[in-house]
Write a structure and sequence with these properties.
By secondary structure, the protein is mainly β. The chain folds into four domains: about 120 residues, no CATH class; about 110 residues, Sandwich (Immunoglobulin-like), CATH 2.60.40.10; about 100 residues, Immunoglobulin-like (Sandwich); about 140 residues, Sandwich (Jelly Rolls), CATH 2.60.120. Helices cover about 5% and strands about 45% of the residues. Strand 24 and strand 25 form a beta hairpin.
Length: about 550
């Protein structure tokens, strides 16, 4: 294809000349002109930017189409080579076509250049003329008088990508957070016996340290781990829960190109030459704190610190106690089924005789009975008491309503006061910032509005509505408004007068709402009124907005 493009360009020039009469041809014969073309695309010229990106071992064809040059030279890097023109675009290996009679300079009009040096390569074209010449491209190039001639020079910069070479580091972190490097393919660091020994329930940190070839995509395999695979991440923590000897796995790296300055490269795989031996743990086998959640209306689950063996007849060893003062309810609910989760062998699921509600206070306990629940490495699950059930009924997208995307999902109507903060947050990295150095000059109502990305779709009902705020110690604000705006309007006031300053504080209140449907462009609006800012200047951050439906027992 590259050679075809070049031939078409030359045919066009010849056709033009054939159409000229003798006087026109004689006139052209006296006309000095500077122009050129390449097989990649007609890139006018530049003196600083990267013109092309290609893989090591690939080529670009250049042709000088200038008129009446006294001299002409192509100059390349010493590692790169000029090619004889008898190769085909389908040839995978171009080394046999290197023109060994040429070094770094060629005086031929066409130049087929094989790039072998990774990094930035320069290709120079230097022509001389007997009169001034100008190249009128995107960037104009004027010839420079040198002695009796006028020299015109252009430089192409070619970014050459080396062949991909995956590299992996594996580390282990102790209980104090100290990491020990166990394997590093780039340093040729490998355990003497080719084995990494760990205990069940421990983890290994796999790191993609590939630099050669500049990949931008990867995928991991670790067959003995709990996760098995991962992709698109430089670092991944693989958990090992099951006893046995396993292959360490592999890293595959690739490069997605843009067909201009970043060339595509197919996947290259490094099979990690290690065995992972998982031994019985010396640590207690227990519940993971704060892991108890409601899965369904009558089902809860919790995680434990290792892979489980299947078990039966453990229901009587669990106690689920539910308290709901508003409903005058205080009772145990029978566990009708206890089992290992079908999707995660480190999770226990409990099915209950009746439903539970997110207004309930629920405590789960476990006693060791005549038969026990054991891990895959034969450890008994330790007893626990009064673990609180958490409810995960959040309606709002945490990225949008936690400001993590920091883009067009919110319309900042008053950017002099409201803005995104990418360096301060309750969770994540972003938050919404209000800041005014001179309150007297601000508008009466300062707003931030939701857009199509954050349109509300909430059925009528009662909700636990919460936000997190951080108020600067030198700021005095009375009220923050959150307005539910659409077919119906409801304003929710947050009293800030007693909120502790200089730290993140979660504010909660129950709100009863009508239907909010995103087909009507319903949205949430933040508003600060000038009359509610007492200090002469003020700074406040807002983060992690939450709405959870209130379930009445």
């Amino acid at each position: 294809m590259k050679n075809i493009k070049k031939i078409i360009q030359i045919i066009s020039i010849v056709a033009f000349l054939v159409g000229c009469n003798n006087d026109e041809v004689n006139s052209l014969a006296k006309f000095n002109d500077a122009t050129w073309s390449t097989s990649e695309y007609n890139y006018a010229n530049t003196t600083s930017d990267i013109n092309f990106g290609i893989n090591k071992g690939d080529y670009i064809s250049f042709i000088d189409l200038s008129q009446n040059a006294i001299s002409h030279e192509w100059i390349i890097e010493k590692e790169d080579k000029f090619l004889n023109p008898n190769f085909k675009t389908s040839d995978k290996n171009l080394i046999p076509f290197i023109n060994n009679d040429l070094g770094t300079v060629s005086t031929s009009k066409p130049a087929h250049i094989l790039f072998l040096k990774p990094g930035i390569n320069e290709v120079k074209m230097v022509n001389t003329f007997d009169s001034p010449v100008t190249f009128n491209g995107k960037v104009k190039i004027e010839s420079v008088k040198k002695g009796d001639v006028y020299e015109l020079k252009n430089i192409w910069k070619v970014d050459v990508y080396d062949s991909l070479k995956p590299a992996v580091k594996i580390s282990k972190e102790d209980d104090l957070g100290v990491k020990t490097e166990l394997y590093n393919s780039a340093k040729e660091l490998i355990p003497a016996d080719g084995v990494i020994n760990i205990e069940a329930g421990e983890s290994l940190i796999y790191e993609d340290i590939t630099t050669i070839g500049r990949p931008n995509a990867n995928s991991w395999k670790s067959p003995g781990s709990n996760q098995k695979t991962a992709s698109g991440t430089k670092n991944v923590v693989f958990d090992y829960l099951k006893l046995g000897e396993f292959e360490a796995g592999s890293l595959s790296v690739s490069r997605d190109g843009d067909d201009k300055t970043v060339p595509k490269a197919e996947s290259q795989v490094l099979d990690i030459p290690l065995k992972i031996i998982v031994n019985k743990s010396s640590k207690p086998f227990n519940i993971i704190e704060e892991s108890v959640v409601r899965l369904e209306s009558n089902k809860i689950s919790f995680d434990v610190s290792g892979e489980l063996k299947a078990f039966t007849d453990q229901e009587a060893n669990f106690n689920v106690h539910v308290t709901n003062t508003a409903a005058s309810f205080d009772s145990d609910i029978t566990v009708t089924k206890a089992q290992v989760s079908s999707t995660n062998k480190a999770t226990i699921e409990l099915t209950l005789a009746s439903d539970i509600y997110n207004t309930d206070d629920i405590k789960v306990s476990y006693i060791v009975g005549a038969t026990t629940i054991v891990s895959a490495d034969e450890r008994d699950l330790l007893a626990f008491t009064d673990q609180t059930v958490r409810f995960t009924d959040e309606l709002l997208d945490s990225d949008y309503y936690g400001f993590e995307l920091g883009g067009s999902e919110w319309f900042i109507q008053h950017p002099d006061q409201w803005s995104y903060s990418s360096s301060f947050a309750n969770t994540g990295t972003n938050s919404l910032k209000f800041s005014e150095a001179d309150v007297s000059s601000m508008d009466n109502k300062i707003k931030v509005q939701g857009t199509s990305a954050t349109e509300l779709k909430i059925v009528a009902g009662t909700y636990n509505f919460s936000i997190n705020v951080w108020i600067d110690v030198d700021s005095d604000l009375n009220t923050l408004l959150t307005n539910f705006q659409g077919t119906t309007f409801k304003s929710v006031k947050w009293d800030l007068t007693g909120v502790k300053k200089g730290e993140w504080v979660k504010l909660n209140q129950e709100v009863t709402l009508a239907d909010y449907d995103n087909t009507n462009n319903d949205k949430l609006v933040f508003q600060i009124n000038k009359v509610d800012v007492i200090s002469t200047s003020a700074t406040m951050y807002v983060d992690d907005i939450s709405m959870v439906p209130v379930e009445q027992r």
